[in-house]
Specification:
By secondary structure, the chain is an alpha+beta fold. About 25% of the residues lie in helices and about 35% in strands. It is globular.
């Protein structure tokens, strides 16, 4: 399994292009949702990727505390269309959560999820902290995971 994390300046031009193309292909084209994909958060984030045969199949952006929200957050969670159904989304979330808890010693994590994925995020312990709202034409909900160090 080829899971890797990168800081922005560790991404090659080719790898960055693959990530941005995947994000645009799914979030803008597949979901028919024009929105500002390039939001100036990438440079300060950790990029978690799964690749096979040098192609990015799964990706998440881990944003440190104080950059987007007070809490660290997980965003741009994505599995390429032809790789869905193989368990990558579950592994992606587990690895994202573990990275934030272990590397950043966070006690909580926030995310802004599409409403249709609410139960998926709840299966990892995330709870809704907002009502459903429209974000670029797609219903979203803010969610938070509180980590108890028991």
């Amino acid at each position: 399994m080829d899971w890797k994390t990168y800081r922005f300046d560790e991404l090659t031009a080719k790898k960055l292009y693959e990530v941005l193309k995947l994000r645009v292909d799914v979030f803008v084209v597949e979901q028919n949702c024009p929105y500002p994909e390039l939001d100036d958060l990438d440079q300060r984030s950790i990029h978690l990727l799964y690749s096979e045969n040098d192609e990015v199949l799964a990706y998440a952006r881990l944003v440190p505390a104080g950059v987007k929200y007070e809490l660290p957050s997980i965003g741009r969670v994505i599995v390429r269309e032809d790789a869905r159904g193989r368990g990558f989304a579950k592994q992606l979330l587990e690895r994202s959560i573990n990275y934030i808890l272990e590397e950043w010693q966070a006690s909580a994590i926030q995310l802004q999820g599409q409403v249709y994925l609410k139960e998926f995020y709840q299966s990892f312990g995330f709870q809704s902290i907002s009502d459903s709202y429209d974000e670029d034409g797609i219903p979203h909900v803010d969610m938070k995971l509180t980590h108890s160090k028991m």
